[in-house]
Amino acid sequence: MDEGGILGPDGARDYLRGWQGRVDRMAVDARAVSERLGNLRVTAEDANGIAEVTIDSTGALVDIRFSERIQHAQPDVVSRAVLNAVREARSSAADRSRQIVLDIMGGESAAGRAIADRMAEQLRGPDSGGAGRGVEG
Predict the structure, then answer these.
(1) How far apart are CA 67 and CA 110, in angstroms?
(2) Alpha-carbon gap, residue 78 to 10, rounded angstroms
(3) C-alpha span between 35 and 33 (Å, rounded)
(4) Structural element, H or E, at residue 99
């Protein structure tokens, strides 16, 4: 580096090689995160054992099952059971998604922490009080 802070040809090549290596590592990490999140499924049940739901990493409902208890439950009770199970599943998915990102990208990575926090916030919803977006109860 000369007195003005400008890299010489060798320094510039070394800097670019290092930068390219970091970009390549980030691309590998991004593919790994995407693959693991693509396979993520979370199942949760309401406290009364009426409804069991399975969601994917985006919070989308992919399966719902009802126990025999549904036969004796009022419709509003069933509705709350489903919403509570979805809320629980989304909270678990938020925790697991965040951990996947941090495991792969590292907790020391500002980008990894930002991505992990954003994903968890999206799954939990804007209030972060456990209620998922569109899931009131």
Answers:
(1) 44
(2) 69
(3) 5
(4) helix 75-105
- pLDDT at residue 75 in the model: 96
Q: pTM, whole model, 2 decimals?
A: 0.74
Is the pLDDT at 135 greater than 70? The verdict is no
Average pLDDT (13-27) is 85
Best CA proximity match to 89, nearest among 124, 117, 65, 119: 124
In order of start, what are the domains of the chain with their CATH numbers?
A: 9-124 (3.30.1310.10)
Average pLDDT in the chain:
86
Residue of 64, 70, 34, 35 whose CA lies nearest to 50: 70
Residue recorded with tokens 């500002």: 110
